[in-house]
Specification:
458 residues; alpha+beta; six-stranded mixed sheet; two-stranded antiparallel sheet; 13 helices; globular; Transposase_21; Transposase
Length: 458
């Protein structure tokens, strides 16, 4: 699969997989393409930002609006990634009008019918030259690509990113106009990070930070990652707590893989062809297996064609709203014992396999497996009290959804919440009630988790 443009614009079939670009190539009338990628050029929109004196002043804010307090960060310009790039490329940093961009991409269903498995991917750029109260406004976001469905682009997303990356390469090398632009990082959830970075988010080496040193183990039907305590200070009390995986954690924080390490790993990768290429194979059984020296790399990302990309300290940001939504959904489901709960039968079997938390192991009585009632469950009465509290919450206009509609008629479950609803639930509402409903050993970590998300979202 390849993009039909530039030198390929007159081709009638893909030069890689040799499939026709038309849905019905024998039609005599107007032909319909298999897929149409909408690309909205970037250069002219960046130049327009300097056509108005008001936006011109905003585009140079990063040079004068830095936070003067040490240890405070209110804008990416205060971060080490921005400062490291300035040191590596002083010519770029010297011209304050040069543009720094962030890329965000994710799939969504445009039809609103969740029973339809349709995934369309917008690729949006934001300008970090502007102050924090402007750079994330809708007027500052630029839609550059609209990748059509019905399936997710997956590992072949580089094919669709080709027009954008070529334009960024021209902007970075100053070959078209005097103003230069660079891509500072991407913002996405964990699956999208896999597609954009080339490091797979599955398997024994799924952690992109730990890289080849990812600590993992196999439990029932899945891989578990149990080395998160390595990042804690050496004197932290949780390092000595055996309730996590039955062991005391004495290992240090994983080593940092620098630019040379990453490039050395990427040089071991073979040239990857798109999935429809004959050498890739059509069935799962015929797909090429990854060699041990390839680690968890599935491809060399197209972003490495940008000469500065390998030297960036932070290449991919994880969207905190996605993480917060997933954490809150699992936590709330576990407290309310609904279908989103992580306290499943297999989870109890995993505890027994790991030889930890024996008070939660499954017990067999009269030929049936019973789950002991844990301390972190809401009782039936507490579930109703919690749901009644959520049902009666009144929020300021446009602050959030009407939570009254999210509570079931029986007032014992909460469902249908969106990402922003989970954001409010995690940071504002849940901690108000767990303190009185659950013991301090359960409520205190939940309140601290709520405070943690408040700090990183501030």
């Amino acid at each position: 699969m390849t993009a039909v443009w530039k030198e390929n614009e007159d081709m009638q079939s893909c030069p890689i997989c040799h499939e026709s670009i038309w849905k019905d190539k024998d039609t005599k009338g107007l032909k319909v393409a298999n897929k149409v990628l909408r690309y909205f050029p970037l250069t002219f929109r960046l130049k327009r930002l300097y056509n108005c004196r008001h936006t011109t002043k905003s585009m140079t804010w990063h040079a004068t609006g830095k936070c003067t307090k040490d240890g405070r960060m209110r804008h990416p310009v205060d971060g080490t990634s921005w400062k490291d790039f300035d040191q590596r490329y002083p010519d770029f940093a010297r011209e304050t009008r040069n543009v720094r961009l962030g890329l965000a991409a994710d799939g969504f269903n445009p039809y609103g019918n969740m029973s339809l498995t349709y995934s369309m991917w917008p690729v949006i750029l934001t300008t970090y030259n502007m102050p924090p109260w402007l750079c994330m406004k809708e007027s500052s976001l630029m839609l550059t690509l609209l990748i059509p469905g019905p399936k997710s682009p997956g590992k072949d997303i580089d094919v669709y990113l080709r027009p954008l990356v070529d334009e960024l390469k021209n902007a970075a090398t100053n070959s078209v106009f005097q103003m230069c632009a660079m891509l500072l990082w991407t913002i996405n959830d964990f699956p999208a990070r896999h597609y954009l970075s080339g490091w797979s988010g599955q398997g024994y080496l799924a952690c992109p930070t730990c890289n080849a040193d990812t600590p993992s183990t196999r439990v029932l039907g899945k891989t578990a990652y149990v080395g998160h305590r390595k990042f804690l200070p050496h004197n932290h009390k949780w390092r000595k707590d055996k309730k996590f995986n039955g062991n005391v954690e004495t290992r240090s924080c994983p080593r940092k893989f620098d630019e040379a390490n990453i490039l050395e790993q990427l040089n071991n990768l073979p040239l990857r062809m798109p999935e429809k290429h004959p050498s890739y194979g059509g069935s799962k059984a015929s797909k090429r297996k990854r060699e041990p020296n390839e680690l968890n790399w599935s491809k060399r990302s197209i972003f490495f064609e940008l000469e500065y990309w390998s030297s960036l300290q932070l290449k991919h940001n994880l969207d905190v709203m996605h993480i917060e939504k997933n954490v809150c959904e699992s936590l709330l489901g576990t407290l309310l014992m609904n279908d989103k709960s992580k306290d499943t039968t297999n989870a109890r079997k995993d505890l027994e396999k790991l030889m930890i938390r024996d008070d939660l192991w499954l017990k067999e009585e009269n030929g049936k497996l019973l789950k002991p009632h844990p301390k972190f469950y809401f009782t039936r009465e507490l579930r109703r009290l919690f749901c009644k509290f959520i049902k009666g919450v009144k929020l300021p206009d446009e602050f959030g959804s009407n939570f009254k509609r999210k509570v079931s008629d029986t007032e014992d479950n909460i469902s249908g919440m969106k990402s922003h609803d989970y954001h409010i639930m995690m940071q504002r509402l849940m901690s108000l009630r767990v303190r009185g409903y659950l013991g301090p050993t359960i409520s205190t970590p939940i309140i601290e988790l709520s405070s943690f998300f408040k700090q990183i979202c501030a």
